[in-house]
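Render this sequence as a predicted structure.
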Amino acid sequence: MWNVLGFLQKYLTWSIPAFMVAGIAVGAIADPAPLKALIIPLTFLMVYPMMINLQVQKVFSGGDYKVQALTQLINFGIVPFFAFGMGKLFFSDRPLVALGLLLASLLPTSGMTISWTGFAKGNVTAAVKMTVVGLILGSVLTPFYAKWLMGAAVEIPLSSIFTQIIIIVFLPMILGVVTRLLIVRIVGLDKYNKSLKMKFPAFSTLGVLGIVFVAMALKAQDILSNPVMLLSFLVPLGILYGGNFILSTLVGKYFFERGDAIALVYGTVMRNLSIALAIAMTAFGREQGSEIALIIAMAYIIQVQAAAWYVQLTDRIFGAVPDVKTA
């Protein structure tokens, strides 16, 4: 089982398209309505494991206020408005898809923010703080941004979104913190870090793939009647991520040393698409939620590929990691 989960997680750029195709196939040959009952359990499976490894206590360690402040300025002062503009440009006649693009931009950072920062040899401690702060701010601000920017085109159920955010973000966060404390107390910090910590993200991946499968199945008939629709999402997503990478790279190079610059890039470009999916599928009802979720599912493909390529280019952009000379 671990081998299968590890494979799905490692090759997410292939796993997600495969589950999308499988969902469309199932929705084409059978009534997908019963799958609606899986949304809440899959959402919990997606969010709760990632919260176990979330190190909330690191938010209170200081010393990097400038990079943290600029990161959240980009996350909430620039990116959502860029996404909103892209939605107006490409999906003026499809407000639910535009809302999906906005939701994907409003929830910054994920567990992969920390992982990719580590792969690129950036400041992992700064990335941990960005992840926690971005998740909390994004969860609180998302309903207001959605109402403010999209309320004229789409009915935004503020109370429903807030309720779902409490259920799918803050409740799992509390449970995750408690779970981590209990595990560390029972098995010790060393065993947790060496043997258990890396297993939880695989369960989150399974939840993500399940939600993608359900979303595709519920919209299968619409997708099959217009198969070019999904491909049309790639251009605005590519522009959104490309523009975000360029902006964050320039800010990082101009204002920060290598480690903080890399953390800023991944702290502003990586989005918590899992929670965006969860909000779409739980707060907006079956029909609307499935349509909103389509572009969020496609964003996974762009995000993972772009993050991986950026690691390969990091040394060219920011220079190699300085050698540490010992006496």
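Summary. The chain has a mean pLDDT of 86. The radius of gyration is 19 Å.
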